[in-house]
Design a protein that fits this description.
25% helix, 223 residues, 25% strand
Length: 223
């Protein structure tokens, strides 16, 4: 018995459509997380306990941890990071893709993405900070510990980035008085894989000016 060519074509089209749907569902897609004021920082809405359950990075995997924080915020559930590491982070498996540009373009992209409810993963370079006795190279001057009464500002020079590979953080907040027409790196706050948990307390880190690595894959944004 011969099959009708039209019916065969319909079946082929249906199979192709089904395959496209499977592939589309396999890659995580971004869902907005509301940007709201949290004790003086405009921050994406996320579960503190979920982020703390992921905890601080293991050696050499800051990029993977930053991606897990981002996916946890977007998905509303803890990301295990399964399939997102293979001798290095697999950004596309987490639904994140590269963005490059000048410093001003990167800062504007950061502002736009946060305003749309999406965390941004940022590549920081090794930058010397004067007056630091422990770790003369670090990526932030202060971290902020979340308490029941607000943020406790702590000077803790804990980060020493690799000069060859830099350091990845997940930017989740911005100063309420930041000027969109004159943005600075220090307007933004991040979940830093090196120190997201300070003895079980959520810590966010304020970026230092002059640290976004604009000439080496500076941003990863949600697709």
């Amino acid at each position: 018995m011969q099959h009708c060519p039209a019916r065969a074509a319909q079946r082929l089209a249906a199979a192709v459509l089904a395959l496209c749907l499977v592939l589309a569902l396999a890659v995580p897609h971004a869902h907005a997380a509301a940007l709201q004021e949290t004790h003086g920082i405009r921050m994406l809405d996320f579960s503190t306990s979920q982020i703390l359950s992921i905890g601080n990075q293991t050696s050499g995997k800051c990029s993977w941890y930053a991606l897990r924080y981002a996916r946890t915020i977007l998905d509303g559930k803890v990301s295990s990071g399964s399939g997102m590491w293979s001798n290095g982070v697999v950004w596309s498996a987490g639904g994140y893709y590269g963005y490059s540009g000048s410093l001003s373009e990167c800062l504007q992209k950061l502002y736009t993405e946060l305003s749309a409810g999406k965390p941004v993963i940022v590549h920081l370079k090794n930058t010397a900070v004067s007056g630091v006795k422990r770790h003369t190279n670090r990526t932030s001057s202060y971290e902020y510990h979340l308490t029941s009464s607000g943020w406790n500002k702590v000077n803790y020079p804990h980060i020493a980035t690799s000069a060859a590979y830099g350091h990845w953080v997940c930017v989740v907040g911005i100063r309420p008085d930041a000027d969109p027409a004159n943005l600075k790196e220090s307007d933004f706050y991040a979940l830093d894989p090196a120190r997201v948990s300070a003895n079980g307390t959520l810590a966010v880190t304020r970026l230092l000016d002059g640290t976004i690595w604009t000439d080496n894959s500076p941003l990863k944004t949600a697709g």
